[in-house]
Amino acid sequence: LNNVDDYLGPSQACVNPLFTAPSKSANSTEAVVLGDGSNGTKKTKATVTLSDCLSCSGCVTSAEAVLMSHHSIEKLREPLQPKKLIVFTISAASLADLYRHLYLETEETEGDRDLSIFLNIEFGAKMVIDGILSQQISLLESAEEFCYRYKKQQVKNIIVTNKQSTPLPMLASSCPGFVCLVEKTAPKVVPLLSSVKSPMAVSGALLKNTTSSVNAVSNNSIYHVAIMPCHDKKLEAGRNDFAWERQTLLQYSNSASIINEVDLVLTTGELLEILTKAISTATATTTSEDEKYNDLELDTGIHGSGSYADFIFRFATRKLFGCTLPSDKPLPWKGSTSFSSSLASSEQSATSVLRFATAYGFKNVQLILQNLSKEKQTSNSMDSGYDYVEIMACPSGCPNGGGQIGSLGKRETPRETKERVRRTVSVVPVLRFNEYTKATVYEKDPFNDGCFGRTARRLLHTRFHVVP
């Protein structure tokens, strides 16, 4: 079994039997036909793109890995079209992992400034966006969507006894690995996914559709590069749902081309590779001491991937029940008996009215999907009774994403991995809802009709599909 692997070259044909041509048998004969036998209509050349592969369950891993290679450093260094404005969005988890690796203090704003200057010099970046902004917008939209679904569910419970089409529990959809798994293996769970776009897609939507310069959008002059902690984000960028037909969206009669919200995705490790080739890491290191991490006691399963469950729980508690939770105190999360997770509940009159959970890692994802599938088959309430579940495919969430810096090729013990993730989470900002959050994010409202308004739902929400 020498030289055996599952690598598929980019030139190989699609393996899905729905689209492959029938193979010739050994005993088949060929008939020579003079002339092409056509009616004179010239057929166009068929091409396969990343978006096509995402809507096909034929070759799940290898071909997608080949297509992901198109989101590479070499692609970023290719000459751009004239008048292209390159803009970077850096995820909070990626920036935190970079800080951890370089031993930079989180309070030092010079790190953000130096990175922005470097990207400007190296690639001509005109703008570097902190992923925290798009994260806040995604959190607010998700919180409003949950409250809408919760109210709708309460009305349905009063009027209709059949819960077959329940909109709850709402599942976080910011993890592309989990979304891809649901679309391909759990079609009945697809309606439960939150329709809010991930922070990466939110940043692209704001850049491509709400820029102050109309000409910039009409000419599609923005080249959006996202730095993310996960390789699956490269697949997410190729979804047709995260691209707009310019003529339809902006009503320009001079063009009907497609505008991608994210043009290129690089991982944290690839960003570090760019940095190490350009500068010496010794000059960027401020200290190699680890004492600043020792006194931190943060839960990697609560805040490391955007604080969706924590933020939405606080938001919903106030909006639905008029109860304001102190933002300076953590929620009373506790371990779940059904799977390795955390659970928080809000009680009213000795009755639990809100039950949120987090589930990280493939094992927990499978258990959640199994419970939901059973609930759908029996049309009974879910055994766990959750209203919202924050689910991430990677163990410990985004700080432990496959695109993070990690141990630089060295094999890690589970203890070393846990410690590395803990240090990364200690740098990630904790986003919690308070009365000033919405006013701060929407101070300059680009939608005119506010959070979860008509324009926001058109730009910041998406659809998910069952993949046969």
From TrEMBL:
Top-level division of the source organism's lineage: Eukaryota
Matching InterPro entries: Cytosolic_Fe-S_CAF, Fe_hydrogenase, Fe_hydrogenase_lsu_C
Domain Iron hydrogenase large subunit C-terminal: 86-402
Pfam family name, one: Fe_hyd_lg_C
Family to which this protein belongs: Belongs to the NARF family.
The protein's name in its UniProt record: Narf-like protein
Species, as recorded: Thalassiosira pseudonana
Lineage, broadest ranks: Eukaryota, Sar, Stramenopiles, Ochrophyta, Bacillariophyta
